[in-house]
Amino acid sequence: MKLDDLAGLQFTYDEVGCTQYDETPEGYHRLEYRERLGDGDEVFQRAADALLAWRMQRAAGLPMTATDAPPRVGTNSLGLLGPGLLNKRLRSRLGLPVPCRVVWTVDEPDRIGFAYGTLEGHPESGEESFLVTRDAGGVYVAIRAYSRPATWYTRLAGPVTRKAQHYAATRYAAALRRLAT
């Protein structure tokens, strides 16, 4: 699968945009993860820049390409899940494609981010959002997702997929902290 192949793909779920709200669609597992990145305008701006340039995912070990940077509604992205220690050439042959499309964005003085939803061919069905926020307590990254298995192998993996999603969120946050500080 290539980035150009994503234009004709459909979402694998009906609840598009729900990561903007506090409700989880019925039948989905929810992930909420928030981590402090640091303090100050520079940390906020560096974190926002890294997020909007798709560097957070790449720095966390998920090769990612996208049709737009910064993301906008309709931007297609293609990640590749695979053994992180393999070289890039081998990973591109063994990796599992994770096609997504951006469903909402936010660009406010103290809140920047986006969410993408899964497309046909993704092993999960659902949505994930990434927000960089700043308040009196510091600069934070917040990751919210809801998902359910979309393939036989993710159904078979059961709770392991939820643990993997939580692990990915911690890696994203750690990568963004490194990029911002």
TrEMBL record:
Source taxon at top rank: Bacteria
- Signal sequence span is none
Can you tell me which residues the record assigns to a coiled coil?
Answer: none
Q: Which InterPro entries match?
A: DUF1990 (IPR018960), UCP010260 (IPR014457)
One Pfam family this chain carries?
DUF1990
Q: Residues in domain DUF1990? A: 12-174
- Cite the PANTHER family for this sequence: UPF0548 PROTEIN (PTHR34202)
> What is the designated name of this protein?
DUF1990 domain-containing protein
Organism, by scientific name, is Kribbella karoonensis
